[in-house]
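task queued by scheduler; priority normal; single chain, no ligands, no partner chains; default sampling; output format set to structure tokens
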Amino acid sequence: MNYLDNEFEYAIAFFALSQSCIIKRPYNLFHRKNLYMRTSNVKRSFGNKKTWDTSFVDWFLKFVKEANHSIFNNNKLNKSLNLNAINIDNESKFDLVYIDTPYISEKGSTVDYYGFYHFLEGLLIYDNWEKNIDYKSKHNRLIPKKNVWNDKKLIYKEFDKLFNKFQDSILVVSYRSDGIPSESELKELICQYKTNVKIKKYGNYKYALSKNKKSEELLFIGE
């Protein structure tokens, strides 16, 4: 899969490929059932038809250009980590920690990003992709992985572990008003480690295909 020897060129190329796949996915999901929507010879008039009709090559080149335009020198030593936040070295110090976890609705339904991003997850494990497919499933999904952030019984403890670990940093948590934990419960968890906790509300919004009209975007700031 890797035809680029330069690690920086490879990183930009993989970014461009991933963004191209994401922008062309039907209904914001990588879902085999929707394949017929691309291949059927029928008239289409949905909202992002122009996006679908634009080729992967055009999108790829657009995102390569976007990535290159985002590169700059801030004259500092920077580090990017690909780790579970809980496993970051305790000696690392951060001025601010931004937290945007998977979301559990008040009804207990969750967002399984591992499943939703099947195709991109597969690219990341390209050489072993076929070994990670659940061939008994209808849509050849990836074999599910347990995630504490999708468990309404464990998510409270996981938030507490996260806040405890980064209690010396400013905590900024992005969440929704109708989630589990609730707004008041999440504030109470942060208040165990921060004396000053503010909540910024950004009005009603909804995700693509979501019929939820009462949810508000929340930003918790603990100092």
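post-processing summary
- The chain has a mean pLDDT of 85.
- The chain has two domains: 7-69, 87-112+152-222.
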